[in-house]
Amino acid sequence: MVSPNSAPDAVADRRARLLAGAAITLGQLSEVLAPLGAMFAERGHSLYLVGGSVRDAILGRLGTDLDFTTDARPEVVTELMRGWADQLWDTGGLAFGTVSAAKDGQQLEITTFRADSYDRVSRNPEVTFGDTLEGDLIRRDFRVNAMAVRVLSDGQLEFVDPLNGIDDLLAGVLDTPALPADSFNDDPLRMLRAARFVAQLGFDVTPRVRDAIVDMADQIDRITAERVRAELDKLIGSEHPIDGINLMVETGLAERVIPEIPAMQLEIDEHHQHKDVYQHSLTVLQQAIDQEEGDPDLVLRWAALLHDIGKPDTKRNEEGGGVSFHHHEVVGAKMVRKRMKALKYPKNFTEEVARLVFLHLRFHGYGKGQWTDSAVRRYVTDADDLLDRLHKLVRADCTTRNKRRAAALRATYDELEERIAVLAAQEDLARVRPDLDGNAIMELLGLPPGPQVGAAWKYLKDLRLDRGPLTRDEAEAALIEWWKTQN
């Protein structure tokens, strides 16, 4: 693989190293690439690895998803893949010229050259097949995604970069093949993809791309909530989500898709340790990420970013110049539900994020250990399967620059976790239930199924949280006494 461009020595050396590394990476896939290239060549067609696959191979981050483009029409691609691929399926892409397959653990998407046109009302193109690689590449979103590698019949690889995407990659910038305004008019989702790639790659956008997003941010309204949600999740699950969020806020995109985030810029944090609640929330997000183990935890990340979105609506200026945000966790949880419903998030996901936002402030009532065992049980029970995430969120929410105060907060939360562990060893805190079930309640009180049984069950659960495990005799005696007060 040889770069087609010349450059000063340092840049040329780096380019050469990156392309050599990509050649080694792709060479390890020769058992897939070589026969694939040969099959297409035998039928008189060219085949190119393209887009994010080339970009990621150069950056040393290639996964198992490989994207190709070809001059062969979809029916020919399907014929070639049938019998060779381990799997071949139709995900609806055939209408857009895409054939999806799997081979030796690699996921392949092979798309016929495209020369689409857009109506600039929706983002749905009028699908038109093209005849040249250059025509296909110029319609792509960014130049770093418009590089290609030709897969030759003998398994050799040839780097093809007519739009100089390698220069943008070396500079760490995102720019469009055509004028940004034309590109974003064709597909406004590309503006949000810019923020996502900033978050994924650690790149920046060029000034002309940034200016175009500022001018055209309202065009994102043409995009469905589902597509916006998908991009937001990819962004927040990336390595540099704060950079992507900042770009969205600075360009006005966030105001169109999730306005609660830029609204936090107006609110001064009550600790006066951050420029505003927005900056505080970004710090909390980063500190939550730093506690992750394994894959990105989208529930935790969203909760960290949105935990204080209720502050603008609850801000009160107090005497003496202070500021309060009473019950912002309650308001914030409602706002999370409203915004995530609008973005078409699954109900379970939404409820998990909202519950973390609702609970994130409760620890601050712990003081210096004043909670009773009952309060500790309720903390665990209310968090339920989110307890580990709540631990991380609460710890991430400590952003004070006062080292003594920060150490004290950590020590206090360490103590709370130790108390939880002690109670968990004594009781099954993960499944706190009444000491009598519904059948026992009905038998003891002579009740048929109905609301009264539910009320009795709730009383016994609250009693269990307050007093811990009871014997059957103790539970029955308490229930009978309670029942007398209900009649």
Automatic annotation (TrEMBL):
Taxonomy, superkingdom: Bacteria
InterPro entries: Bact_CCA-adding_enz_type3_sf, HD/PDEase_dom, HD_domain, HDIG_dom, NT_sf, PolA_pol_head_dom, PolyA_RNA-bd, tRNA_adenylyltransferase
Gene3D superfamilies: Beta Polymerase, domain 2, cca-adding enzyme, domain 2
Coiled coil (UniProt feature): 399-433
GO BP term (any one): tRNA processing
Cofactor(s) the protein requires to work: Mg(2+)
Stretches assigned to the HD domain: 277-393
SMART domains cross-referenced by the UniProt entry: HDc (SM00471)
Record's keyword terms, sorted: Coiled coil, Magnesium, Metal-binding, Nucleotide-binding, Nucleotidyltransferase, Transferase, tRNA processing
Protein's recorded name: Poly(A) polymerase PcnA
Source organism of the structure: Nocardia camponoti
